[in-house]
Design goal:
Elements: E1 8-11, H1 16-27, E2 33-35, H2 47-52, E3 60-63, E4 66-69, H3 71-82, H4 94-124, H5 126-129, H6 133-155, H7 168-182, H8 189-199, H9 202-210, E5 221-222
Parallel strand pairs: 1-2
Antiparallel strand pairs: 1-3, 2-5, 3-4
Helix pairs in contact: 1-3, 1-7, 1-9, 4-6, 4-7, 7-8
Length: 223
């Protein structure tokens, strides 16, 4: 379904997850207003934001009177609502859609939440969650073990995770691979080469620029 003149507002910048939502907006060529709040700055604790998302997490997308959070869900909503046959980020074939879901759940849970975010909590955010070197090391090892499934898939000569075209599964994976490299986690060359190729997409580069926190005085910017 395609709607005219969406009224899109995205809340959040500076994280891998906000980057995903911005990336989707640029892949789909959508105009939006960016509210560049950041986590752990107090900006997610305001009464205004609490009414928008009681969970007080970013990113959050508003489309008129509709609100949706969680980056994989935001991407899916944008693609299904405003995507075209040429730029859709979700497969339409039933079996490929099932494979897409499998990859999205695997990446979001096993690579992101169970591995990389554990490292973030007990390393970068140790002042909040406590320092836990063993948990960090274990999470890095677990990431490598779970990445084996990606290595197998890419080793089959695939350009993308699902079918013959780019999807949001590639977006989730690329952000996790970049995150892992930045954390010093060993990542096989087949994965870094894949991530570097995906990261050359113009929409990704535009999203990177949009994801940079603005100067303190700037609170809203039209896109």
């Amino acid at each position: 379904m395609a709607l005219d003149r969406p009224q899109l507002t995205l809340w959040g910048v500076s994280t891998s997850r906000t980057l995903r939502a911005l990336w989707a907006l640029h892949e789909l060529g959508l105009d939006y207003v960016l509210r560049p709040i950041q986590p752990r700055t107090g900006e997610t604790q305001t009464a205004e934001f609490g009414r928008i998302n009681p969970r007080r997490k970013i990113p959050v997308l508003q489309d008129g009177d509709f609100t949706i959070a969680e980056s994989p869900a935001i991407i899916a909503y944008l693609s299904e609502t405003y995507g075209t046959a040429d730029n859709a980020l979700i497969p339409r074939d039933a079996r490929q859609r099932a494979q897409w879901l499998e990859w999205c759940f695997h990446i979001a849970m096993e690579l992101d939440a169970t591995s990389l975010y554990v490292m973030r909590r007990h390393r970068d955010l140790k002042h909040i969650y406590g320092e836990a070197p063993m948990a960090v090391d274990s999470a890095a090892t677990y990431f490598g073990n779970q990445l084996h499934h990606v290595v197998q898939a890419l080793g089959e000569g695939r350009s993308f995770l699902v079918g013959e075209r780019f999807s949001s599964a590639d977006m989730l994976l690329t952000t996790c691979l970049v995150w892992a490299v930045n954390y010093g986690v060993p990542v096989p060359a087949i994965c870094t080469d894949y991530a570097a190729r995906i990261a050359r997409r113009p929409a990704y580069q535009a999203a990177l620029r949009a994801n940079i926190p603005p100067p303190p005085a700037a609170k809203e910017s039209p896109r």
